[in-house]
Each structure stands twice: as structure tokens, then as C-alpha cells.
């Protein structure tokens, strides 16, 4: 009660302070509080990164499709190609047998305007007929023409003389 | 009142480490080193209780009364 008898009485707070000298400034302790708060903010903000990294590690973002038969090995000569669709009915794709044991498959919608890309055996290139875009058969990277992004690659597996499509590689572009 | 700036310096170092770890998290995520991302993320989270501890130790050493906080 005693302190209230002085006028103006000593009151150290934000809202009723009438003395300018009693105003709070950023002192040492306040600065330290800010630093601890910043550390907390950093801790919270790194949580989503950890979450998405954990998600990637657990393979939750890899989509699984049932494997699908493309063709028999005996029916595809070296240098030949086969049209098929994977994973959906309307996702047209192209399998190329590059050598005895090397098969590559790509979704063959051109990354420029989605024309169907076809395999030219004589030139050893995948060509889009619409604007003469060309793709490298080894990697699916565009080499010539308007397309800038590679063709999405399909994982291929050979079992007992039959070629299967087992999945779609994650698209990075 | 005698002031010690040791804990202020420690907290500044912790903040600097926070910044560095966060930068590393973003970079390692880009390079798809997800295990490294998790490790740095753990460091970053660990730094917060350490900072809190430093602050509380500092307050204790000063012997601040509760109405003075």
C-alpha cells in the first residue's frame, strides 16, 4: 500500500506507465529472450523438412503399379521397338531393345506438345514427328528441337523370356 | 547490477548454428541426402532446449526475484 501513496507511484508495466524513463527498452534480458524465441522458431521450422525427408526415406512417394507384360523377348529383335501403354490405358509408351540385354522404355508423349514419339531404327533416335524434336534413346534426354524436358522413363524387367514394365521412374526436371 | 555477457554470446552462437543447420537442411534436401537432412533437423531441434537452458541458468545465477523478471 505504501508505494501507492507516492504520486506518480512506481509502476513498471507497459500499459499504465506515465513516466518516459520507466519505458521498457530492449535490454540484455529481453535480447536473450528474443534469441531463445528465435531458436524455438528455427526448431519448429525445421520440422517440416524432417517430415518430408522421412517421408522420402520410407518410400511413401514412390507410386506402385502392378507389373504389366510388354512382349516376349523372342519377338523383339535388337534395335526394334514395341508400343505399349503403361501405367494407364491411355499412357502410351515405347520399349526399345538397344542391345542383347539392354531394354529401355519411355512414356512416348513428347514433352513439347505431347505428340507420340517414335523410334527410328536406322538413325538410332527417337523422333517426334510434329516439330522434329529428337530424344536420346539411352537416357530419354532431348537432343534436338523444341522439347526441353526428358521423356519419363519406365522401369523394365525381364523374367523368363518375357519383358515386363514394373514402374515409372521418379521424374526429375 | 553486475552483468555477464557470456550467456548472450552463447545464445548468439546457438542462433548462428541454427542458421547454418537450416541452410544445410535445405541444401541436403535438394541433393536428396535425406538421412543428412534428418540429422541436421535433429540438431536444430536440440538447440532450442539448450538455448532455453542457457537462458534459465543465466537468470538463476543473477538470483532475480520473481517480481523483477
Automatic annotation (TrEMBL), chain A:
Gene Ontology terms for molecular function: 2 iron, 2 sulfur cluster binding; metal ion binding; monooxygenase activity; oxidoreductase activity, acting on paired donors, with incorporation or reduction of molecular oxygen
Keywords recorded for this protein, A-Z: 2Fe-2S, Disulfide bond, Iron, Iron-sulfur, Metal-binding
Domain Rieske, first and last residues per copy: 68-165
Keyword Iron: yes
Origin: domain of life: Bacteria
Keyword Ribonucleoprotein annotated: no
Protein's UniProt name: 2Fe-2S ferredoxin
Source lineage: Bacteria, Bacillati, Bacillota, Bacilli, Bacillales
TrEMBL record, chain B:
Keywords: Membrane, Transmembrane, Transmembrane helix
Transmembrane segments: 7-31, 37-55
Domain of life: Bacteria
Name of the protein this chain belongs to: Uncharacterized protein
Amino acid at each position: 500500500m505504501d508505494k501507492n501513496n507516492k504520486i506518480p507511484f512506481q509502476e513498471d508495466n507497459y500499459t499504465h506507465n506515465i513516466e518516459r524513463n520507466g519505458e521498457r527498452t530492449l535490454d540484455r534480458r529481453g535480447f536473450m529472450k528474443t534469441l531463445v524465441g528465435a531458436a524455438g522458431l528455427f526448431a519448429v521450422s525445421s520440422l517440416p523438412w524432417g517430415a518430408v525427408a522421412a517421408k522420402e526415406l520410407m518410400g511413401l512417394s514412390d507410386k506402385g503399379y502392378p507389373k504389366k507384360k510388354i512382349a516376349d523377348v523372342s519377338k523383339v529383335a535388337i534395335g526394334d521397338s514395341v508400343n505399349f501403354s503403361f501405367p494407364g490405358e491411355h499412357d502410351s509408351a515405347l520399349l526399345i531393345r538397344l542391345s542383347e540385354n539392354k531394354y529401355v522404355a519411355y512414356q512416348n508423349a513428347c514433352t513439347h506438345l505431347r505428340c507420340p514419339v517414335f523410334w527410328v531404327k536406322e538413325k538410332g533416335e527417337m523422333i517426334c514427328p510434329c516439330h522434329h524434336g529428337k530424344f536420346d534413346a539411352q537416357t530419354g534426354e532431348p537432343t534436338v528441337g523444341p522439347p526441353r524436358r526428358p521423356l519419363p522413363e519406365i522401369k523394365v524387367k525381364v523374367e523368363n523370356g518375357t519383358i515386363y514394365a514394373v514402374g515409372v521412374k521418379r521424374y526429375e526436371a | 547490477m553486475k552483468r555477464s555477457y557470456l550467456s548472450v554470446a552463447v545464445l548468439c552462437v546457438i542462433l548462428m548454428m541454427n542458421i547454418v543447420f537450416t541452410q544445410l537442411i535445405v541444401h541436403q534436401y535438394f541433393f536428396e541426402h535425406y538421412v543428412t537432412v534428418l540429422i541436421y533437423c535433429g540438431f536444430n531441434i536440440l538447440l532450442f532446449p539448450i538455448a532455453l537452458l542457457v537462458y534459465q541458468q543465466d537468470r538463476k545465477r543473477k538470483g532475480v526475484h520473481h517480481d523483477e523478471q
